[in-house]
């Protein structure tokens, strides 16, 4: 589906690791505890497969998503996703709360939105800076639903959309939580991205 | 014996290793840069080479940079060890100080590498 | 051009009238706009801060979240949100006006903040910081949560399963042990625990785990028909049954019937770690005899110990511990 060389794939993984590393530092500063985040791998999928990847764990389980729209040098919908009970866990850990309520309250949804804002801006920001690209980002939006519902609410009519999926490992206070960041890209955005990666590699390694 | 000066670059990202490699040579073309992809590999390398500087990525699968730093610090007491990370926070800073290692921030740039080498007096 | 000036005057009035704080920084972090709301709720008038570096006015905010948000707005053209939950009150702002830094003891207002890039043609990028007073909303939500907790603790029912909760159990066990001694009758206690429940939760998810608890509780309740019997949810996956006027032999018969019934439900459980692939329970029994005068904790302790032995002996069984 996507022709990235091994080196190009490596470069993207590394760039996103730097992005989530910065985000982890920012979150650590907020809670005053050690926070680490990493992106062990990335995958390119079509929308249906991406939804299946997220939904496969437990049927009917809800996902909490925080989305932001970016445009400029390339356009994408970026979505941070965690299973609902994991989102609860992250927010409760960040806020230091132990309330036994089953859902995120409205205030906690705001907190989750900010967490998404930090992580997504960090990932896309690192990409934009290293690629020397001009972008504009929106404020975060909170969603809750099944993975298919969340993924299909973006760029809806475009069946050729590709989802760049980042696997995220989030560690706070001995809790290790797995989540995802999905970038929904249409074919032209995907092409732009691939071009940017090549250009970046040529720039930093060209002389070697 | 007069070996050429050696730097060991440890990072699971090949692009990162290549960048560090290149930026080191652009400052000291006569130096030798050795690469390792994991903490375990780094520990193997230092059995046969004696680098004056080790650059250690913190975020690596398996052993990880922190654990590798601790062991390398014991194995190579004279070597400058520098942790490389995008996640600069107090917990990591403090642990680096405890271990007696330095750190450098990611993204890796030519400027940062050159400044690091200069600051270590190398 | 009267139209343009009129429009400018209109916009300035609006900025002065809006019920939120608006601060605009230029590309060097200097404050170029400080609206009336900011002046009213902070200790600073516009002419005191205009032209100054934002971080000279608020040095405590350097290196904090808002610092990187401002950088992301100016450098990357990104918008940022600072939620009221993660940052209680970054700015020294007071709902009832600024009493010289709030030394009348008033707490800072709770703030929701958005940082937005402002792009003007022919000008370097600027940055807008919007501040909303969310003290009331936060207070209301806090009150609702506290009320929920109080209501929960006042009832005798377990929120999830509908059977008696721990508080009810604590009250009942005291009442029944005393009554048993007064009437010289035996009192039995069953401690019932779902086997491998953590593995069930991990594998099937918490929602299904809750469903399982609800079902098991209902089945247990259906088997304890006598009006004086009490079934309570003792802990996460642990239940307790108080059986007044029940001697050891009767308790053993009841416990065995209960165990068999739950096993017979054949609720699928793929992760038991053995060849029995359905939900089972372990039960510990302790009986207080008329001549004995044990403490409540001795009775519970014995039943707990029996439960522990049942688990150790392979689960899906009933064990007795004498006092």
Number of individual domains of chain C:
2
Give the beta-strand count of chain C: 10
CATH level-1 class of chain B: Alpha Beta
List the strand order in the largest sheet of chain C.
2-1-5-4-3
Task: Please tell me about this protein's structure.
The complex is a heterotrimer of chains A (208), B (122) and C (323). With 208 residues, chain A is an alpha+beta fold. Chain A has helices spanning 6-31, 47-55, 84-95, 106-131, 147-152, 187-205, and strands at 35-38, 42-46, 63-72, 76-83, 135-137, 141-145, 162-172, 175-185. In chain A, strands 1, 2, 3, 4, 5, 6, 7 and 8 form an 8-stranded antiparallel beta sheet that branches. In chain A, strand 3 and strand 4 (76-83) form a beta hairpin. Chain B has 122 residues and is α/β, with parallel strands linked by helices. Chain B is globular and about 35 Å long. The two termini of chain B are 18 Å apart. The model of chain B has no long low-confidence stretch (mean pLDDT 92). By secondary structure, chain C is an alpha+beta fold. In chain C, strands 2-1-5-4-3 form a 5-stranded antiparallel beta sheet. Chain C has a 5-stranded mixed beta sheet with strand order 7-8-6-9-10, with helices on both faces. In chain C, strand 7 (230-233) and strand 8 (238-244) form a beta hairpin. The radius of gyration of chain C is 33 Å and the shape is elongated. The interface between A and C is medium-sized, with 37 and 33 residues.
Give a short synopsis of this structure.
The complex is a heterotrimer of chains A (208), B (122) and C (323). Chain A is α+β, with helices and mostly antiparallel strands.
Keywords summarizing the entry:
heterotrimer, A: 208 residues, alpha+beta, Chemotaxis protein chec, eight-stranded antiparallel sheet, 6 helices, 8 strands, 47% helix, globular, B: 122 residues, alpha/beta, Rossmann fold, five-stranded parallel sheet, 5 helices
């Amino acid at each position: 589906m996507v022709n990235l060389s091994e080196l190009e794939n490596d470069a993207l993984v590394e760039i996103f690791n730097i992005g989530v590393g910065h985000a982890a530092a920012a979150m650590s500063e907020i809670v005053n505890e050690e926070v680490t985040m990493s992106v062990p791998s990335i995958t390119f999928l079509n929308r249906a497969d991406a939804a299946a990847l997220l939904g496969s764990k437990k049927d009917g389980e809800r996902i909490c998503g925080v989305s932001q729209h970016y445009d400029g040098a390339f356009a994408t919908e970026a979505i941070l996703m965690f299973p609902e009970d994991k989102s609860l866990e992250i927010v409760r850990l960040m806020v230091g709360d132990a309330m036994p309520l089953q859902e995120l309250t409205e205030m906690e949804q705001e907190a989750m939105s900010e967490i998404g804002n930090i992580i997504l801006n960090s990932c896309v920001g690192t990409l934009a800076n290293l690629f020397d690209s001009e972008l504009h980002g929106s404020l975060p939006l909170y969603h809750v639903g099944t993975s298919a519902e969340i993924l299909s609410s973006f760029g809806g009519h475009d069946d050729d959309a590709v989802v760049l999926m980042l696997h995220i490992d989030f560690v706070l206070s001995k809790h290790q939580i797995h989540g995802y960041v999905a970038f929904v890209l249409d074919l032209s955005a995907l092409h732009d991205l691939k071009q940017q990666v090549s250009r970046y590699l040529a720039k930093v390694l060209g002389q070697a | 014996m007069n070996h050429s000066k050696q730097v060991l670059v440890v990072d699971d990202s090949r692009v990162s290793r290549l960048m560090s490699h290149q930026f080191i040579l652009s400052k000291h073309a006569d130096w030798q840069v050795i690469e390792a992809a994991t903490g375990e590999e780094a520990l193997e390398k230092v059995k046969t080479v004696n680098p004056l500087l080790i650059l250690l990525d913190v975020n690596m699968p398996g052993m990880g940079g922190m654990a590798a730093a601790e062991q390398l610090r014991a194995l190579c007491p004279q070597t400058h060890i520098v942790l490389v990370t995008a996640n600069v926070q107090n917990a990591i800073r403090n642990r680096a100080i405890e271990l007696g290692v330095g750190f450098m921030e990611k993204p890796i740039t030519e400027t940062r590498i050159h400044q690091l080498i200069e600051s270590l007096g190398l | 051009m009267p139209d343009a000036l009129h429009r400018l005057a209109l916009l300035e009035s609006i900025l002065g009238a809006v019920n939120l704080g608006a601060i605009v920084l230029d590309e060097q972090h200097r404050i170029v706009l400080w609206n009336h709301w900011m002046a009213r709720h902070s200790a600073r008038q516009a002419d005191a801060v205009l032209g100054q570096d934002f971080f000279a006015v608020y040095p405590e905010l350097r290196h904090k979240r808002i610092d990187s948000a401002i950088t992301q707005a100016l450098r990357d053209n990104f918008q940022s949100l600072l939620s009221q939950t993660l940052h209680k009150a970054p700015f020294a702002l007071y709902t009832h006006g600024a009493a010289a830094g709030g030394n009348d003891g008033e707490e800072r207002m709770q703030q929701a903040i958005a940082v937005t890039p402002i792009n003007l043609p022919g000008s370097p990028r600027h940055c807008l910081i919007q501040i909303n007073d969310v003290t009331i909303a936060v207070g209301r939500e806090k009150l609702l949560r506290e009320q929920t907790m109080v209501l929960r603790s006042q009832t005798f029912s377990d929120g999830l399963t509908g059977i008696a909760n721990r508080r009810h159990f604590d009250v009942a066990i005291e009442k029944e042990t005393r009554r048993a001694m007064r009437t010289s009758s035996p009192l039995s206690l069953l401690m019932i625990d779902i086997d491998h429940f953590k593995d069930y939760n991990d594998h099937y998810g918490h929602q299904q785990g809750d469903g399982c608890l609800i079902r098991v509780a209902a089945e247990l309740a259906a088997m304890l028909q006598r009006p004086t019997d009490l079934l309570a949810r003792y802990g996460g996956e642990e239940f307790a049954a108080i059986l007044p006027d029940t001697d050891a032999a009767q308790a053993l018969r009841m416990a065995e019937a209960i165990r068999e019934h739950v096993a017979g439900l054949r609720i699928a459980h793929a992760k038991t770690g053995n060849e029995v692939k359905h939900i089972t329970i372990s039960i510990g029994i302790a009986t207080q005899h008329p001549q004995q005068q044990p403490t409540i904790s001795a009775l519970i302790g014995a039943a707990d110990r029996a439960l522990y032995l049942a688990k150790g002996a392979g689960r899906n069984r009933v064990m007795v511990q004498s006092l």
